[in-house]
Amino acid sequence: MADTVQTGDEVGRILVKVQNDLSQLKKSLSRVIISEPGETLDIQVLDAAISRTEIGIKKHAEEYLKTVNKQVSTLPIIEDNKKKTRKIAKWQPSPESIPNLLPQKYMIVGASPGEKHKAAFAMRLLYNPSHPKNRELIHQNYGIQLPDLQKKTGSNVGAKKVDTSPKVGSSAVVPAEVRNNNLHLCPNDMKADIASPEKQDPPPSAADLCLQTFVKPKDSSPSKIGMFERAGKRQTDVNQSKDIVQAHRISHLHRPPTWTITTPPPTAASDSKLPQGPARLSPLSPQCAPALPPVPISKHCFSIVDGRIDPCCTEFCAFKKQYCLCWGPLMEALWRLEQLMQEYAVPHARVCDQRLVALMQTGELDWGGGGVGHLLSVLENQEEVWELMRRPGQRYRGEGGRQAAAERIQASWRCHQARTAYLRQQRRKWAAETIAISWLLHAQVGRVRKSLQATRLRQLENYRSRAEYLADNWKHLSTSRRTIIHVPSLGYSEQQRRSLTGFDILQNTQMGRLCDIRDENIEVIYVCPVRLGEDLLHYYTQLLGLQGAVETGDLSAVPASSAKRFTILTPEAYQHFPNHNMCVSTLLKYSPRTLRRIKDLIQGKHAYIVSGVPHMDDLAVADELGVPVLGPEPAVAQLYGTKSGARRIFTSAGVSVPPGHGDIYTLQQLYECLAQLMTDHLEVQRWLFKMDGEFGSRGTAYCDVSHLSFRSWALQKYRRHGPQLWRMAWAQEPVLIKFQEEVPALLASHAKLFNTSCYPSWISFLEHFLKEGGTVEAYPPSDSVTCLTVDLLVEPGGEVHMLSCGDQLHEPGSMQVVGCSMPQTSICQHTLHSICMRVGQACHQRHILGLLSLDLVTFLELGTLEQQVWAVDLDIGYSNQLAMTQMMLFMTSGTLNCRTGCLEVPPLVINSKASARHKAPKALSVTSRFAVMSSKLFHTNLSMVHYSVFFQMCKAHRIGFDIKERQGSVFALHDSTERKSLGLVTISPDLKGALLTFAHNLSIIHQEISAPNLQGKTNFKKLIKNIEEVVGVTIQNAEIEKSA
């Protein structure tokens, strides 16, 4: 024990000598600096001091190691002393003592939250000796087996002895020789009697043991060596206590960055005194009593005033003394807290020692960790400090505030400049990219446009050359074997096609084109826009196979080979564009497999294309197949297929047209033309507004003049002047001015539309009317108006043929054509033929070839009762009426003579049963037939009935066709999917019978497929009502003829 005390004194003496030598060296250095130039520093003095320090440390290294370990040795049991053998211990460093050579960035900064909580709990148990688990925890962690005080009795006192001899004396810090040498202490330290060995406090108990952890801070630059080093630079009088702290910090910086002290191998002399577990406890007292009474934890709260800690403050000195063994981490935290208070100019902050120690023990502050929140958590007035720090600009009121403000301003300004420059550069880059991409797209579009123009120009040239060939060889071609490629394409504009529902089915309403095979020299290739099911294919195969039976009138006749002369193809592109409403020509253009199939079918044969409404893709398909097109150029058809273009053709042909004006594109022009027309034709009560480019009744509106209050006054003016003078401008001027004033209000309030499916109001109609252009025409001034349609064929050679003619059937109150009766009985045949020939020749002069559909109206003039015929519309293309006419002619094997207005049916050949082989057959006289047909029948309930059930229902009600009598009903089916529309043809010996049969069939079908609560959407009822009106007119005309 005495040796240990002496060793501690010697170590302390060595440290004092080193300190004195360093002080002398410092004074020498100061003298050299003050002395005159030319004097040099004696380096030997510094070298001698360093040598003496090294010799002293080497001499007492082993004794100093024993002092640092401060282990408590436990003597073995006396009874078992003889049984134990002496073993030489081998030094094996623990894994924790091996230095971590990894870079600092790969080292773990702190423990996990669970480990921190466990360490804090263990530390509280170590500070509480009275806890039941204190003894177990010390033995488990430090290898110290404390006696069990509760089970200790007098009989087992000698069982195990504890070596309580102190390893280091109570005065281990300062040697006995220099205890009387009072260092420069502050008054508070003098009051604490630190320098007086006689007035020292009694030795602390064994409960003052604490873990001594050597941790190298993350930021260990010389500028942060210690709080009191910075304070020493600001003060001229440095006391001895600060020098000790500085020496401790400087020596701490040179230690390796490990968590434990690397211990050299123990000697044999000290082997019996070293325990097996790692030594981490540093006793503060020379005695280690078995009983460890609890020591109350003191609370030493001190203040930080104006960012400074008073080192002489009583509370701070007591706190420093209490936690001197773990002072390194605490000093680092205090320095950081002091620096924070200085930077934010906090006038007063109260530090709680317990919070600071607890925060240090959690490891949050290790390696420079822990933010402002962790540091402020150790303050008792942290709310006040936090509110003060949160004030705007508070950082710039503290230490270095001007510099921080300048740096912040400079950084903000530089950031603003950099951000502005970056955004400017980004905008320029974006603009450059946009310009480049736009230019590339423009160039690409230009190249594509030029390529398309060149392709279309080549296709147009090829079309013209083939059209010349077709015109030169038409007579030979029309009488030889040929193949007709039917493409029922509706080449409307994209806007019109997208506005139509069921556009693909609408294009397939001309399945009657298949009946062209009634000519034995014709083969038909029908391009269908929809996929037909097996039921439809079977139906048309059976229907077209009846040609032989129809010609002979014998159902037992062998089916003709006509079923082998037609082919139905569906372009594969319809699957890729199901909702684009493309016309058939466009679908066929993008269907290479179908094009190859057609090429194979027409190879080595004469063929040409018969399209529907002309489209640009018709030329592409014809150029791909290498065949001509029986039709005009798409540009010519677009020019003359409008309402205004039709008026120009009619005018040039010398055909009567209704009063009106075409090519109207401005609102003022519309008002002026309508006012002038009203003034010139006061007898007209309704005026029609037809939009160019529209079809049917979609683009037609009307306005009645009867809503004008001054119309009677205008009629009086007209009667006063008479028809001859009324043509003069001076006679019309007052009425014209009045009309011009009233026309805008009249149209705004009384203009109406026939069909609101596309244009719901007059405003929307007027907008498109002025954009597309249109005409203003007079409605016939009569109560009885009949409309008829004539289909013409303008051959490439210039000849014009009338293919069909029929009176139109309309829905009541609408101009929508839903059917017709054939042949027409409204106009004199000679007059009709003359009009058609003139119109056909005018079309041929304008290179309009192929199939045309001419609409006429007829009425009786009120004054003279003369029949007037006006040409009102011209549609370029294959019409639904012509398709249904082909089916009618196929089923009757008859011919339609438009010159005579008669549907002639050949007589039946009847052989006598007795002498069928010997007698000549008897031929019946030629008979005539009348037909009523429609391809636009619509009923939503038809989709709930399959075609097989539908035909069974018709058969039960005797709805069918009699081949022998060549009369009855024939259906034209359109699709297999929706099954909402169909076509119907009824043939009868007289017109009245045909009309009544047609109405009767519609009524039966409607009753069979409808229920009282499920009527569905249909046009059956309106058509039946219109047929009844026509029947009434027919009966009235028959009575007039009889009376005459």
From TrEMBL:
Annotated region (Disordered), positions in chain: 256-279
Stretches assigned to coiled coil: none
Matches recorded under InterPro entries: ATP-grasp_IQCH, IQCH
PROSITE patterns the UniProt entry points to: IQ
Origin: domain of life: Eukaryota
Domain IQCH-like ATP-grasp residue range list: 634-899
PANTHER family xref list: IQ DOMAIN-CONTAINING PROTEIN H
Protein name: IQ domain-containing protein H
Species for this entry: Astyanax mexicanus (Blind cave fish)
